[in-house]
Amino acid sequence: MTLRLGVAGTLLACLLVASAGLAWDIAWHTYIGRDAFLTPPHMVLYGGVAAAGTAGLTGLLLESWRRAPGTVSLAGVLHAPLGLFVTGSGILTLVLAAPLDNYWHELYGLDVTLWAPFHVMGLLGGLVVIIGIVYLFAVELARSGERLAVLAALLFAWSAALRMLLTIFQPAIFHSPTTVLGPLDVLTLPVGLAFSIAIVGAGAAEVTDRRLAATVTTAMAAAVAIALAFAAPGLVRWAAAAGGYTFYTAAGPEVQRLDVLLPLGLLVPAVCLDGVHRLVGSGFAAGAAAAVPAAALGAWTVAQSVPVAAAAVALGIALALPAGAAGGWLGAQLGTVWRLGER
Amino acid sequence: MSRLAAAILLAAALLAPALTRVLADGVRTDAYRAGPYTVGVTREDPVQVGRAAGFELSLEPADGAELAAITLPGPGTDARPGRAMTTAGWRPGTYEVTATFPVRGAWVLLLTVTGGAGRGQAAVPVTVAAPGAIPQWLGWAIGLSPLAGLTAFLAVQVRRARRLRSERARRPNPV
Question: Chain A closest CA to B164's CA: distance in Å?
Answer without folding.
Answer: 6
